[in-house]
Amino acid sequence: SQQGEEDPQALSIQEGENATMNCSYKTSINNLQWYRQNSGRGLVHLILIRSNEREKHSGRLRVTLDTSKKSSSLLITASRAADTASYFCATDRYNTDKLIFGTGTRLQVFP
Amino acid sequence: GAGVSQTPSNKVTEKGKYVELRCDPISGHTALYWYRQSLGQGPEFLIYFQGTGAADDSGLPNDRFFAVRPEGSVSTLKIQRTERGDSAVYLCASSSTVENEQFFGPGTRLTVL
After folding, report:
1. Nearest chain B Cα to A48, which residue?
2. pLDDT tens, A80-93?
3. In the Cβ-directed half-sphere of A66, how many Cα atoms lie within 13 Å?
4. What's the rounded mean pLDDT across residues A43-65?
5. Interface with A, mutate which of B24, B95, B102, B109 (most A CBs under 10 A)
6. Is residue A44 less than 8 Å (CB to CB) from chain B?
7. For residue B68, which of B58, B84, B57 has the smallest C-alpha distance?
8. What is the dihedral of CA B62, B63, B64, B67, to 10 degrees?
9. Which of A29, A32, A43 is most worth mutating to test chain B (most B CB atoms within 10 A of its CB)?
10. Angle formed at CA A4 by CA B60 and CA A58, multiple of 5 degrees
11. Interface of B with A in 63-82 (CB under 8 A)
């Protein structure tokens, strides 16, 4: 079963705009990660944030984590058409390495 | 360097047949994971290995599903008596980091007719 949910389910924006996706999860976590998936095949790791961190940056990506609300957000700044993909959050817990994925946000960036 | 590879990329089979899906992890990665993804959903965990042993197989849906990793490198996911509901993309990932960053292969799309 899915651990979390992303919202929105789908997001359409113009190139240059920022895109924000949210993820909620249900249980205590060790780490939270964001992945990108193109065309329904392999996932690409974007960024990992530990449960004791609140914010992390990587290039045009900014991730926040609020463990009290069991939620995270992914911000992509100055979006590009190449950012068009599905984005998933995934969590793991302290006693296991398996990842539990959310339902995903489909991002469409128009040139 | 080479990433995670999976073969075949596509597999079409008939209901009731047996299939094997193969995963070659990144060299040196001790942890290997199998996930299954249905259309429009996020990946769902099936099983993971640390070395040769299955550390957690709680995601295998029933006893028709079995996976092995005999030498701690390549893994094979085996599905007996396939059913139409087994149709999905089967993803493999490997990891070497303490923080559990997982590197995914391109997946095998299984279609059961």
Report:
1. B101
2. 999 999 999 999 88
3. 9
4. 96
5. B102
6. yes
7. B57
8. 100
9. A43
10. 110
11. none
Q: What percent of chain A has pLDDT over 70?
A: 95
pLDDT score of B81 more than 70: yes
Q: How many beta carbons lie within 10 A of that of residue B51, not counting itself? A: 13
Mean pLDDT of A70-74: 96
Q: Which two tokens stand for residue B52?
A: 């040769």
Given A40, A90, A92, which is nearest B89 (Cβ)? A40
pLDDT at B4: 96
Q: Which helix (H) or strand (E) holds B25?
A: none
Measured CA distances, B19 to A29, B32, B62, B69, B92 (Å): 35, 20, 15, 16, 16
Amino acid at B1: G
Residue A77 DSSP one-character state: -
How far apart (Å, rounded) are the C-alpha atoms in residues B67 and B59?
Answer: 12
Q: Is the C-alpha dihedral spanning A14, B37, B58, B76 positive or negative?
A: negative
Q: Which residues of B touch A35 (CB under 8 A)?
A: 104
Give yes or no for a contact between B4 and B90, defined as CB atoms under 8 angstroms apart.
no
B12 in contact with A, Cβ within 8 Å: no
| Tokens standing for residue B101 | 């960053």
